[in-house]
Specification:
The complex is a heterodimer of chains A (115) and B (116). With 115 residues, chain A is mainly β. Helices cover 0% and strands 50% of the residues of chain A. The chains are: A mainly beta (115), B mainly beta (116).
C-alpha cells in the first residue's frame, strides 16, 4: 500500500516554463487536494477535488491548473512558472463520502525552485 | 470564513519539560472537525489526532494530550516530558461540516525545539 505518491521530489524551473506535478493515491479516496507550504505561511490550499470530474479552487489557485480524470490521480499544472511559485508542494487525500472527520494523508512533498 | 490561529511561532524547551501548543479557531459551522499534524525535520506531514465538534472529551495518548474547549474555541496540545524526537513543526487544522466547502484550513504552525 503506497499511500499518496508525489513525483518529482525536487524540481528546478526557469521563469516561464511549464510543468506538471504528479500525485497518485491507492486508497480509493474521493477527496484530493494540493497545498503549498511557504515559511511562516503554514499550508495553503491551491485546488481540491471531491471526485473524478469535479475540481474547485482553494485559497491560492492563480497560476495553477488541475484535472481529475480518475479517482487515483490529481496532477497539478504550473502554466508559466514564476519565482513566487517557489515552494514545497504537498498532495493530500482522504475519504469524503464517509465523513469529513477523515484525516488527510499527505505525500512526501515536491520542492520546487523557480529561477 | 474559517480561521486557525497558532500564536506561538517557535517554542524552545529542555528535554523532560512539559509544553503546550495553543490552537484557537474560528468557524460559523455548528459541526466541524479539528486536527493536529506533526512535521518533523524530514518534512513529511504526520496525522496525530482528530476531534469532532460534538465530542468535547479530552484525549491522552502516551505523552500527548489534547484539550478541546468549545467555549473558548481552543484545541490545545500538550506534550508531557518532552523528548528530542518531539522537535518538529506542529500544525492545527480545521474542516467545516456538511454543506460547507470541503477545505481543510491550517494554522501557520508552531516550531518546537527540544534540547538536551
Amino acid at each position: 500500500n503506497a499511500g499518496v505518491t508525489q513525483t518529482p521530489k525536487f524540481q528546478v524551473l526557469k521563469t516561464g516554463q511549464s510543468m506538471t506535478l504528479q500525485c497518485a493515491q491507492d486508497m480509493n479516496h474521493e477527496y484530493m487536494s494540493w497545498y503549498r507550504q511557504d515559511p511562516g505561511m503554514g499550508l495553503r490550499l491551491i485546488h481540491y477535488s471531491v471526485g473524478a470530474g469535479i475540481t474547485d479552487q482553494g485559497e491560492v489557485p492563480n497560476g495553477y491548473n488541475v484535472s481529475r480524470s480518475t479517482t487515483e490521480d490529481f496532477p497539478l499544472r504550473l502554466l508559466s512558472a514564476a519565482p513566487s511559485q517557489t515552494s514545497v508542494y504537498f498532495c493530500a487525500s482522504s475519504y469524503w463520502v464517509t465523513g469529513r472527520n477523515s484525516p488527510l494523508h499527505f505525500g512526501n512533498g515536491t520542492r520546487l525552485t523557480v529561477t | 470564513a474559517q480561521k486557525v490561529t497558532q500564536a506561538q511561532t517557535e517554542i524552545s524547551v529542555v528535554e523532560k519539560e512539559d509544553v503546550t501548543l495553543d490552537c484557537v479557531y474560528e468557524t460559523r459551522d455548528t459541526t466541524y472537525y479539528l486536527f493536529w499534524y506533526k512535521q518533523p525535520p524530514s518534512g513529511e506531514l504526520v496525522f496525530l489526532i482528530r476531534r469532532n465538534s460534538f465530542d468535547e472529551q479530552n484525549e491522552i495518548s502516551g505523552r500527548y494530550s489534547w484539550n478541546f474547549q468549545k467555549s473558548t474555541s481552543s484545541f490545545n496540545f500538550t506534550i508531557t516530558a518532552s523528548q528530542v524526537v518531539d522537535s518538529a513543526v506542529y500544525f492545527c487544522a480545521l474542516r467545516g461540516g456538511p454543506g460547507t466547502a470541503s477545505k481543510l484550513t491550517f494554522g501557520t504552525g508552531t516550531r518546537l525545539q527540544v534540547t538536551l
